């Protein structure tokens, strides 16, 4: 069973998931990175360019999903280094530091609470996120073209690409595509017909929407909606 709530860390979400049936699961690209807890271990989920298929391992998971672009500063790792990867925290941080944080999370009343406290502590140590990153996400999520986004932000296309790689794990075109996927699925899940969803989210037609979603997720919109 999956559940989530807004975190006290701005823009983040705290979630838990205990699979209720065997078999693999599907985690869709969303432009985010997560700090994960599983079986007493801490891992980092990098930004995905395609659906991540879980192996159906039994047991509960917990995580903090960071707003796009904010995790690299908190974790000290460029997002591009973790693209399409799940990495043990001990592979990213010095061993003693990783063990200390893991122990603190495991000592909390529950893993989700421990992860949120860890995220809040890291945010207090690193300071506020770069406001430019939020403006990039807002512009692209609104469907603004990449070139127009760069112009509106007063930066060149190459700088926008470099900043996006470090903060989001991929270039602005891929980020825009992932954000459009999420917008389209949100509309469809709320009952908007697929043809209307395609028109409202900038696809040429329903066939274009279906093709793009299949490329990003490995499933059709109808399969995702049924799942």
UniProtKB/TrEMBL annotation:
InterPro entries annotated for this entry? AraC_XylS_family_regulators, DUF6597, Homeodomain-like_sf, HTH_AraC, HTH_AraC-typ_CS
Which keywords does this chain's UniProt record carry?
A: DNA-binding, Transcription, Transcription regulation
UniProt-listed PROSITE patterns: HTH_ARAC_FAMILY_1, HTH_ARAC_FAMILY_2
- Gene3D superfamilies for the chain: Homeodomain-like
**The organism sits in which domain of life?**
Bacteria
SUPFAM superfamilies, alphabetized: Homeodomain-like
* Sequence ranges assigned to domain HTH araC/xylS-type in this UniProt record: 130-227
Q: Work out whether the entry's keyword set contains Nuclease.
A: no
Is DNA-binding tagged as a keyword?
Answer: yes
Q: Which PANTHER family does the UniProt entry name for this protein?
A: BLL1074 PROTEIN (PTHR46796:SF15), HTH-TYPE TRANSCRIPTIONAL ACTIVATOR RHAS-RELATED (PTHR46796)
Name under which the protein is recorded: Helix-turn-helix domain-containing protein
